[in-house]
Amino acid sequence: MADLKSQLSDVSTKIDALEEERRVIYEDSHVDELEHPRLIAINHELEHLWDRKRRIEAAISAGLTELPIPPPAPEEEPVG
Q1: What angle do CA 52, 1, 6 make, to 5 degrees?
Q2: Which residue from 16, 20, 53, 62 lies 20 to 30 Å from 38 (Cα-Cα)?
Q3: Would residue 33 be called left, alpha or beta, if left means φ above 0 and alpha means ψ between -120 and 50 degrees?
Q4: 4-26 and 35-61 helices cross at what angle (nearest 10)?
Q5: pLDDT under 70: residue ranges of the chain
């Protein structure tokens, strides 16, 4: 298992990429029927990634070498 700092780096990279993708979708201020399902999936994934990032940061802050309680398994992507 990768150490917490590398996990934090990986999660941060994924968050940045998804937030950029979301920004591009909102850029024209109109979300069409093709973008809407992707936007739902992005927001769902970001919710889980931010939770994981906060857990990792807390573990690092506490001086731990691994997450004491892993985040919940991601649920199935919402349909919309």
Answers
A1: 60
A2: 53
A3: alpha
A4: 150
A5: 1-2, 74-80
The number of angstroms, rounded, from the C-alpha of 61 to the middle of its chain's C-alpha atoms is 20
Report yes or no: 3 and 65 within 8 Å, Cβ to Cβ: yes
Q: CA 64 → CA 3, 4, 10, 27, 67, distances in Å?
A: 10, 9, 18, 40, 7
- The span from the CA of 70 to the CA of 78, in Å, is 22
Q: What is the dihedral of CA 32, 11, 79, 75, to 10 degrees?
A: -170
32 vs 17, 46, 49, 80, CA distance in Å? 21, 20, 25, 13
CA dist 17 and 32 (Å) reads 21
Q: What is the pTM of this model?
A: 0.81
